Amino acid sequence: MLKLPRKRDIAQRFPHGQAVRLSPLLQRVTAPNNGMLTGPGTNTYLVGNNEVAVIDPGVDKTKHLDAVMQAAPGKIRWVLVTHTHPDHSPGAATLARETGAQVLGHHIRLQGKRDKNFAPDAYLDDGDTVACDEFTLRALHTPGHAADHLCYLLEQENTLIAGDQVMDGATVVIAPPDGDMAAYLESLRRLQTLGIDTLAPAHGDLLSPANAVLQAIIDHRLEREAAILQALRDTGEAQTALQLVKVVYTDVPSLLYPLAARSVTAHLHKLVADGEAVATDDKHWQPA
Ligand SMILES: [Zn+2]
Asked: What is the mean pLDDT of the chain?
């Protein structure tokens, strides 16, 4: 599930406290919250040179936010968040206070783990844009990983600031109640229709060509779904998500089983909606 690069490679490619220029309009500063779920750390992206939009300020750590402010070639006007998981949005308030920037995000409030202090100045919905002379960022509501998830298309470079819609070298966790597998697959397919060249994920490096990467994720999810359904049919009796993980996720270390069980639960909800499985109680499923 998670394939972490070697420590030395991470330090070179994702230096904490230092901006990496990725394109004429895009820079990245990686927050110092590297770990099992966050890979090298959360990527904070800076868009623009004259006026700047910061996407996913990450953790509220002075050294990180100072590096973001130092990297900004012009005034930071906007702080955008892809979603309100605690590794993405907590730096927003501090950054806004220091720069006078406007904080923007989606209006949906997550039910599970979230940054409870997130207080945007205004909401963005699907299709809304943040624009200046130099760039246009188009917000795309992409529920699946989280119900409030937005991706931002940098139209001038056909690059999608993708948040946790995709990860470099790892599979995105889809954990109900905020995670929804059917919505996630739909969001991936929708992104494939937009002619995007490059994906800029919140964890790890740039990914391209975008549509091939998105297709590989869709294929992987559908393979897992088929394997889960097969495992349900093979046993013929009601199973928990964790029991199914042990059969299906043989390629994953057992340390990650509880995490995988959350994605399996998301798959099971989709299988129920598709008429392929039924829930016998709130913890057990059997084939339809
Ligand atoms: Zn997340």
From this structure: 95
